[in-house]
Amino acid sequence: MKLRTAVTSACAVFLLMVAPVVARTWPAGGQLPQLNIYIWSTYLSPRIIHGFEREFHCKVNYDLYDSNEALLTKLQAGNVDYDLVVPSDYMVEILIRQGLLAPLDKSRLPNAWANTDPRFLGLPFDPHNDYSVPYAWGTTGLAYRADLVHENVDSWSVLFDPRFAGHILLLDDTREVFGMALKKLGYSLNSTDPVELRQARNLLLLEKPLVKGYNSSNFEQDLAGGDAWFAQAFNGNLPFVMRDEPRIRYVIPKEGCTISVDCACLPRHAPHKELAEAFINYFHRPEVAAVFVNDSGFNTPNRYDRQEIDPWLLANPAVFPDPAWLVHCEFMRDVGPVIALYDQYWTEIKAR
Amino acid sequence: MTGKRRGGWGLSISTTAVYLFLYAPIFVLMIYSFNRSRLSAHWLGFTGEWYAVLWRDEQIFQSLVNSLVVAAGVTLACVVFGTMSALVFSRPRLRGKALLDGVVYLPLVIPEIVIAVATVIFFSLLSLKLSLWTIVIAHITFCVSYVIIVVGARLAGMDRSIQEAALDLGANEWATFFRVTLPWPLRRFWPPPCWFSPPRSMTTLLPPSSRGFAPRPCRLRSIRVLSVELRRRSMPSPPSSWPPRFRWFWLPRGWSAVP
Amino acid sequence: METVLQFFRRRPEYRTATLLSGSLIWLVGFFLLPLAYLLAVSFAHRSPYGTIDWTLGVANYVRAFQPLYLEVYWRSFWMALITTSSCALLGYPVAYTLALRVSKRWKTVLLMLVVVPFWTSFLIRTYAWMVILRSEGVINNLLLALHVIHEPLRLLYTPLAVMIGLVYGELPFMILPLYAVLQKFDPTLLEAAQDLGASRWSTFLRVTLPLSAPGLVAGSILVFIASVGAFVTPDLLGGARTMMVGNLIQNQFAVARDHPFGSAVAFLLTFLVLVLVGVGLRKGEQATQEIL
Q1: Which of B38, B65, B218 lies closest to A244 in CB terms?
Q2: So where are chain C's domains?
């Protein structure tokens, strides 16, 4: 085949493949103001985005991340032009300390202060909410198959029960797994005491033969398939799976677990601060908050009208846990330099 | 090719088995894409609804465009720079060849994770804004090695006298290059050596877990299913006249041995 | 145009420099420099809040040789070795068939077929293997339906699953170099051997195998390098039960935010790999020299 023909036909094929894709995604709102959001992959509902775009005549662009550390790396690298980020509680603490967040103009956020459950305001990592507004909250409890486990589950000790060997999944997360062990031992999950950490490590080492695996991303699939009977679970993975597989149940053990709140913050050099604050204010309208809960399956600290929430979500303890369960739950905080000890013990557990 | 065919069925069976092994996940993926259930654990019947969801999903299409842009940019840069350098590398005598060879081979030899972490902290040192440009830059880095080695091998096997003849007949260096030298590797080289793939380590550098309410893979990663990529270092099928491309195969041609 | 050419004719070394400049900018600027920076960081220390404290020392390297981490390296090395051998065993027949037993028409197609699965995302293919291997997955359902077993086999989250995933991911890197060598084979050598009375097996062991050694070495090096640094497969298919050196490095950069230690381990890994490549190349040269 002649070179010219080959090159021409390759280019033609390439253009034919690319054209419909580009046509479909050609940015239509070239003249509208932009809002750039960097957010967890399942936190944005298309309805909310389109509602905001229509009302405020702007275009919302978003990038997704799947770990707080990814967010930290991007913000530390600097020169990113996001207007809004949504880090978790302990990461807000780290970002404030490193000076990566901009203070909020509280006068532009009346909905936030009026509609947020006061239990979620003034939290230790940002006592005056100078930098963050709560966006969504969740827990890291215990999910299990009620049909395969014929007893009442209410404590972390089931994960250490030899009868369930080979059917237990833990999260692949240093802080969460250690947090669970510390809670079982009766300590704080933010412990920096080396003695307590050592006890937690020993407990986890003893438990390792019983553990089937460490999985943070798709443990719900194993629960649904019956491979695993228990899984330490982020509640956010569960609502839609529990709807499809009703035999999965969720409980927060009596020793307590991690409660976590993700907050909306502005990066220090955000180019469109007013629009970002408008978005936060818009998000805190009760009707918008209800849409968020219905679309994403996450709970939010806002005062939405419970009538507007889908009934199956209201009945789901992963999204709406019994308030009595939350008594011993703690927010996760940054442990500072002791993270090196956590990491070393984690390596020991994984390497054996 | 003759040779006794007795017992050849053992080879055929093992070869077929390996091909089935290679394609098993692909078939499973294709079948499960029609699963009505969200869960891969249950099979709830055939449905095309997920393709409809995919068609409506704007983020996925934006990611696809990003991937295509990256691929196009990387391809162009690598082919241009790589071919230019390959012209130098294919010369039989070159001072400092050992050093140059080492530098060119290094990206292929160092584990992906080391390259990934080095690149990430280097970019953060430079406070380089992470964007499509940084992805393009990082990919060009090791893809260009690949082009140099492959095109260089092809050019090395070329008969230099053809080029000399062209020059003698009055063509200047540009004409010689575009009409004589360049078609030589490109004609026998199909598909083009420019279909490279971003390595998985670039986007899976940071773990998907830790503090996630619903830690799902980032969208930019998930679109790879749709994008036209070849995994790095994967070879298009070479015609039988193609010389082998690895260093030690060049030994019989009298080249000096270089790691 | 002409002036440019004349300039380069007069100064051939400028021409060389210009031609090389494009790639060298990239290779030196975006590859060697980051590696050099990584090396520098490996001698630094972690400050209490996760940033880099530039007091230099070899503490990270000393720490990297603690028994805890040696265990991790050893396990990675063994896993990579077994993966490489499995790839060689599985890949050789394929390369041999494609190179020597298949008609010219089919060669191209079949080679493309080896490569095409790699046009899809590695992560997605790994998740697909989880679907195949789990207790209610394809394999177990099939075996249960055929009454070969009565209880599901525990395939997922085991070292076997990690092995399968690694071999799957690296097989083409073994097949292609082997193919490249084998298809340059002179078939008359085989005929000569058999005419002289050698059995098929003996022909293979004494003629084919030694002559394909360079391809075997090339493929083994590629597969070994890729397997020893693997971190996604042990996490997903192995249930993150075992820590390999790739996971160790990833943890340092992601969770522990201890870049200096992570860099030190990364460099140790690189050094090991380079040493092995050097050794492998020397063996490859020896094999080729012996034959010639």
Answers
A1: B38
A2: 64-291
